[in-house]
Automatic annotation (TrEMBL), chain A:
Record keyword Cell cycle present: yes
Signal peptide: none
Membership in a protein family: Belongs to the ParA family. MinD subfamily.
Pfam families attached to this UniProt entry: CbiA
Annotated residues for binding of ATP: K11, G12, G13, V14, G15, K16, T17, T18
Domain CobQ/CobB/MinD/ParA nucleotide binding residue range list: 5-226
Keyword Hydrolase applies: no
Alphabetized InterPro entries for the sequence: CobQ/CobB/MinD/ParA_Nub-bd_dom, MinD, MinD_FleN, P-loop_NTPase, ParA/MinD_ATPase
Species whose genome carries this gene: Nitrosomonas aestuarii
Record-linked PANTHER family: SEPTUM SITE-DETERMINING PROTEIN MIND HOMOLOG, CHLOROPLASTIC, SEPTUM SITE-DETERMINING PROTEIN MIND HOMOLOG, CHLOROPLASTIC-RELATED
Cellular-component GO terms for this entry: cytoplasmic side of plasma membrane; cytosol
Protein name: Septum site-determining protein MinD
Functional note: ATPase required for the correct placement of the division site. Cell division inhibitors MinC and MinD act in concert to form an inhibitor capable of blocking formation of the polar Z ring septums. Rapidly oscillates between the poles of the cell to destabilize FtsZ filaments that have formed before they mature into polar Z rings.
Amino acid sequence: MARIIVVTSGKGGVGKTTTSAAIAMGLAKKGHKTAVIDFDVGLRNLDLIMGCERRVVYDFINVINGEASLNQALIRDKNCNLLYILPASQTRDKDALTLEGVGKVLDELSKDFKYVVCDSPAGIEKGANLALYYADDAFVVTNPEISSVRDSDRMLGILASKSRRAESNAEPIKEYLLLTRYDPNRVKSGEMLGLEDVQDILSLQLLGIIPESKSVLTASNAGVPVILDEKSEAGQAYEDVVARYLGENRPHRFLDDKKGFFRKLFGGRS
Amino acid sequence: MSLLDYFRASKPKSATIAKERLQILVAHERTARSRPSYLPELQKELLEVIRKYVNVDQEAISVKFEQDDDQETLELNIVLPDFQQDNKQVNM
């Protein structure tokens, strides 16, 4: 049985697809067969972030409609042979996703895969609801910014009421926080909500803080998940996230700005 | 504002303002979430029934739901139209 992870946020542009790509790659690199599914029908982008946009032949909707088999639609990642991508349809209507159809595909994937990562679209409409419906774990991606925290709180309400686990009174979805685009300098100067501020409101289990990093854009430009950029802070932070999710106990890095410290030490100006 | 206040420069940081705004908003939205989902429908149907007898408009009816530890209260407030220059209120 696969563990189904939904990467969700409510708000758009906070880093759901970046996170989905990174953690799926991280899990696969740790030796777990992983599939990552794009639920954003009509606005797919996971294929670009994973760098497989030119290899898309069939998509999620084709599989749901029986126009292609799952094996035909799954794209094997070029960097890791335990990672597969199931792209969303770019042309179909959102209504093509159905509860039964999604359930059937997830069931079939569950037989063969260890983890299935569902990359949710923004908003709280059909695609987002279906992405979280079958989830076992939820990675709530949040920016230290009021609208994002509010939307995350809204998503927590939906996770707790409109999922299969909620409807069947099973053990609730396990919710984790990923605080992305974090800038310790701005937190220090009181311009940005800090980890504690966000946790005072959401109080979730923290999987990691992803610092604001230029390497995220560089990685998406190249179509390589940022976790493969081992020199970058964002890459290392995602590496930590995956390790923590798998049960390792790692201290949280990137809460303080190291550069600031060294600048202070050598008397430079920031 | 005294001169001392001016020098103290104790303007709250923007992150502090953000947090305060969020705490109020989120608390409000969480209580709204725990309300039963039939409330708007109940309000609509009540309005229809009352309109059979008295001409009131949408704003004249408020339905409030409160939840304490061990009890739930449903408060219904109807403001009847203003004839004879005083407000008659029916409380249920």
